[in-house]
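re: ur msg from earlier - yeah i can do the 6-O-phosphono-alpha-D-glucopyranose complex, just paste it... oh wait u already did. ok heres what im feeding in:
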Amino acid sequence: MCGIVGYVGPRPAPELLISSLQRLEYRGYDSAGIAVPDGGGLAVLKSPGKVRTLGDRVRSEWAPALREGARAGIAHTRWATHGPPTQANAHPHCDQSGRIALVHNGIIENYADIRRQLEAQGHTFASQTDSEVLCHLVGEYYRDGDLLQAVCAAMRHAEGTLGIAVLCADRPDQLIIARRGSPIVIGIGDDETVVASDAAAIVAHTNRVIYLNDDDVAVVTAGSVEVRTAQNVPVSREVAKLEWDSEAAEKGGFAHFMLKEIFEQPDAIRNSTRGRLDEGAGTAKLGGLAMAPREIAEIGRMVMVACGTSMHAGLVGRFLFEDLADLPADVEQAAEFRYRNPILSPRDLVLAISQSGETADTLAAVREAKQKGAVIAGLCNVVGSTIARETGRGVYLHAGPEIGVASTKAFTCQVSVLLMMALKFGRCRRLSRDRGVEICRAIAALPDAAARVLEQNDAIAKIAAKYAAIRDIFYIGRGTMYPVALEGALKLKEISYIHAEGYHAAELKHGPIAMLEPVVPVLAIATDTPGREKMVGNIQECRARHSPVIAVVSGDDRQFDDMAADVIRVPACPALTAPIPVAIALQLFAYHVARLKGCEIDQPRNLAKSVTVE
Ligand code: G6P
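and the outut:
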């Protein structure tokens, strides 16, 4: 959940590390720190707060000779787990000698035992973190100038997950990098090497990368990368090309990444679906699934595991698999799934849905499903991510990097991909070619539908202005619009801190209706999709309790004009694709409410983009 950057090369390291770290700030932003070689020792600076604060301190506290002269370094932005976001708990941490510095993502599970052992050997600790313990462990194993074997030994001793970068004053021209369960990417530039926990920090420098495997350790210098296993055996890892260009990780004139990503949706959906629709045959081509029609026909049940927004996409997907592929489909919160002893058979397909491909609970659910012999596949956005690698088969979203903490384009691309999967599965089972052709056309029309919702931006902003001061709101929907209501409410609470609850419209009467009063609005999704007629009744129930209703309707539908205080119009779409334009409208609504409240939209309080802890 934190961000790591490291650099070795001819350029001044501090400025480069700070600017690269800023691109990772969406991963965690409660404290930050940096370490560089300094006159035979190390200079370390750490600061609570944002990377900006750290950058200001580097500029004011470090002498120009250090700022300009350091040619290597490591840096970190933190999302606190062990210990609050104080200066002492910020990374990098140093070992007992103060000559080794380390930045760490992940959790060391046996850190308390290691700490006790090391304390008995005379080590003293400055922080409450598990990461500092790991650094001391490396220091303890460091002998005869061999940092690589020290890191390998520490990796074998430490249990849990780690992505680390280590800098030692004895070798100011090299870094040691290691990975177990927490990603590390090595970017290979022209006579320079940039390492990071996430490609977003690398794209500005190079598009040639090496993804480390679990339990890999690498020695990197400006001109070389040498990868070994934790047993210190050399291995070769291929150099891949990053798909994203540096613009993809910039705001490009938008006030926030979230807004940029909302507006990218027509293109993102186009990229997700490009080359994957076969209109002639009325099906989709998803090579990464690597499943023959016969295998698809033999699937007995779909189980989607995911968290947060990805789980909401799965809930939409459930309708699609049932409707198009005649396939029983369940969606499970990944943490619930892994701890519940789920019943699985070899005919079950467990699909892990994860934008980042790093969510700890989703990953653990994949491992549990693998253990129980189910067929597993991944639906991820981040190429080379842990879930993508562990599932070994699946579909990438190709949505481009999502930097805003509140997920937007990933959701609509996930739904688009689930639609294509359901179509393909359907065509291997009972779906007719004619129906398949219709669905292909509906999918192909999605980028245009998304663009038309974006044309409503100003209208939605005006409506949002009327609700920026509310404290509570309910979102209601039916059918596929029920998960969209959940997702709309999640967006609003994530970025505006307004108490927003998503409910099935039919469930309103079973409790939440007690909350309704004139200051509690209800956003009702009343599009021209199954359940619309029933929604008319639900809206009347809300009005009868004097709750203002914001109705989301299809096209020119006028039926709700008199019933609703406000109407948000989305383009009319076939029922199967309608969740996408509605989700975009609700993203815009949440964005404008949060903007008007002056909230930190791209970095909402307490949240992190990828949750790599349970
Ligand atoms: C975090 C993010 C959410 C995201 C969820 C699952 O909570 O803030 O936006 O939906 O994790 O993430 P994933 O990367 O697995 O889709």
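cool cool. Residues 447-614 form a domain with the Rossmann fold fold (CATH 3.40.50.10490). ping me if u need the other ligands too
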